[in-house]
Amino acid sequence: MTLKDQLDKIRQERKEDIKDVVDLKKLDSLRVELLGKKGPITQALRGMRDLPADERPSFGQFANSVRDELQSAIETRRDELKKDMLNKQLEHEKIDVTLPGKPVAQGQPHVIQQIIDQIEDLFIGMGYQVLSGPEVEEDKYNFEMMNLPKDHPARDMQDTFYITKEILMRTQTSPMQARTLEKHDFSQGPLKMISPGVVYRRDTDDPTHSHQFHQVEGIVIDKHITMADLKGTLELVAHELFGDRFDIRLRPSYFPFTEPSVEADITCFNCGGKGCAVCKYTGWIEVLGAGMVHPNVLEMAGVDAEVYGGFAFGLGPDRFAMLKYGVDDIRNFYLNDIRFLTQFSKKG
Ligand code: PHE
């Protein structure tokens, strides 16, 4: 067989081999085998020097055309394989964009947080600052600076969890009164602040008691603040949260840190004031404690009680939520039962 016939045979056979290759790696090793330095074409071109001189050009041309042919066969096969791979991948990863999507479960603020948000919006609109304070609090702020010295009998009403003798879980948000009074610079203007947060009491949980619940403290201190300002402010809260037909009534009460002290009632949401079982036939429901900040509280925080004075209040968003939605057991707010909590959609 002449060199040319050998080459022609290689051309025909190996072209078939190329067509049969099914993966790119093998195709590449075949390429090296056929067209590389040790491949048959290179060999044949090397053997050319044994040919008579007049046959060399046509043989050279032929060898080059075989090389080109095999090369383009390899390229064609490579393109085919790549296309196959892509098609397989597309088939495999097919996405039907017309299928309905899976609904994404979207959360919402807890019902008590919704009430707090509403209260915050209202007070921010009136120029109050919103601050949060520590839940693990010093006895000094929770009691002493609120005019409840160590042996004060009113401490009994607010037993709590003690970390040490001097550090406890705060029983009220009122310590934020002392903390802000201490820092406030009255030359820059009045103090107007609300402070929402969690408080703790050593109470046994039952439908109306929880060892952990929420309060929103409020305090306004300036030069000419009166109880009428307090009442007007509380009325706004009632209207905002429940509606315009709700009124506020103040009753004398006692807190060590306010003088005079009041308890505020709101028109019974159930009977609208006529009297029913919910309001024990009074037409009113107690919702918060308030009063004019006691001079001792001001003085202990370094504020001149001869010049400055004002009101403070502490309301319970848990109680508000119970009244607003007719929830009869406070523990529902803390059990994290999603069926209960999702009833209070912000939209609804
Ligand atoms: N801190 C009081 C309580 O927890 C509520 C209150 C706050 C009363 C501010 C008067 C003024 O019962």
Automatic annotation (TrEMBL):
Gene3D superfamilies: Bira Bifunctional Protein, Domain 2. GO terms for biological process: phenylalanyl-tRNA aminoacylation. It catalyses: tRNA(Phe) + L-phenylalanine + ATP = L-phenylalanyl-tRNA(Phe) + AMP + diphosphate + H(+). It is found in: Cytoplasm. Signal peptide: none annotated. One of its GO terms (cellular component) is cytoplasm. It comes from the Bacteria. The keyword Ligase applies. Tetramer of two alpha and two beta subunits. This is Phenylalanine--tRNA ligase alpha subunit. It comes from Secundilactobacillus silagincola.
